[in-house]
């Protein structure tokens, strides 16, 4: 291979790498300022963020406070942003699990009996199968 072809291939490689790095960089957020943290009254903070148009931050704070799914939190924030009201409703799965049930599920999980642990959680909490599975996997 001639030196001219080798140089052309090297230049082409450098250009491709540069374009890939540029494409990857465009996918990153450019705002390096950390979002405001809730100060005390979390519900007021969610409402303030929602009405200020900071939907992503409001959804994140609401999910941290309530354990809602992403979709449910987004819907609640949309209602708040539109001037409506929203109440938390029942606790998220796993929030009110009895200590004895948690201990039994953890014991079964530790012994490699994941399915039995999920059954125990479901029997005592009336969670859905998916919620009980997520709960047990989070132990």
UniProtKB/TrEMBL annotation:
<feature type="transmembrane region" description="Helical">
    <location>
        <begin position="6"/>
        <end position="24"/>
    </location>
</feature>
<dbReference type="InterPro" id="IPR014719">
    <property type="entry name" value="Ribosomal_bL12_C/ClpS-like"/>
</dbReference>
<keyword id="KW-0689">Ribosomal protein</keyword>
<protein>
    <submittedName>
        <fullName>50S ribosomal protein L7/L12</fullName>
    </submittedName>
</protein>
<keyword id="KW-0812">Transmembrane</keyword>
<keyword id="KW-0687">Ribonucleoprotein</keyword>
<keyword id="KW-0472">Membrane</keyword>
<keyword id="KW-1133">Transmembrane helix</keyword>
<dbReference type="GO" id="GO:0005840">
    <property type="term" value="C:ribosome"/>
</dbReference>
